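Entry: Nucleoside-binding protein
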Amino acid sequence: MKRVLLAAATLAAAATAGAQPAVIYELGAKNDKSFGEAAWRGAQQWQKETGKPYLEFEIANAAQREQAARRFAERGADPVVGIGFPQASAIEKVARDFPKQRFAIVDMVIKLPNVQSFVYREHEGSFLVGMLAAMASKSGKVGFVGGQDIPLVRKFLCGYEQGAKYANPKVQLLSAMTGTTNAAWTDPPRGAELTKAQIAQGVDVVFSAAGTTGFGIMQAAKDAGIYAIGVDSNQNHLHPGTMLTSMVKRVDLAVYQAFKGVQPGVTVLGLKEGGVDYALDEYNAKLITPAMKARVDQAKADIVAGRLKVIDYTAANACR
């Protein structure tokens, strides 16, 4: 209760600031070291370049999605950016009520003349980390633990599976989803449990595509001495030595572009646009051999050039 009251007070105070861009973070907030943090970095980049302030709000429950969007719109915030598909209905309702103001949504398409929808080709980045997983695996078994079982997460899984089998046609993939509700994104104990079950079956690399549930996945991987793959933000630094890489999803680009000026319609960000990629830095440089890097970089170039096609699960709700 205290958190909800504090959140409401923060929203009320922020909304009085007037005509500034605003960002609404999903459950898990901006300090999740993943999806929300990526969005926050985009807002910070815009602020650093312009020297102007922006509004932000971290929701504590589902009801606050529409409340936040509406209050920001009532105070003239422009644009109002919703981070994550759960905010789509709230953004759509408020955007209809405030047709002269601009809005943006990440991971969902809203067909309104005052809304910019940002969607990603997550399957392309997942293909690359799938390749790395298969090349790094000694057991020939790689794992995937997703968050909420929805087509978007299966898009990650499908790309990952394609990449793993591209690198090693004999690789075996074990996969699990944390749950079927939004709570699946914020359940580290369940993530750890699912990961341990895969490790017991021989998995020695696991891809975490599960929001803050990933903390449990990555910790379980570290405890067992196997590799984990992070998601959304570069999470290599969380467990140096056992983080093989991260599938970076540049949500910061969406927020930054929206803050600079909403362009209504659908904006798609993939490898070609720098919207997704695999992460290579000082924390995992010793884990990615020159041969692995050369092979994955060639695949990346082939995908960008259109020579290598990666199946998008959401195109037909099937990985084929």
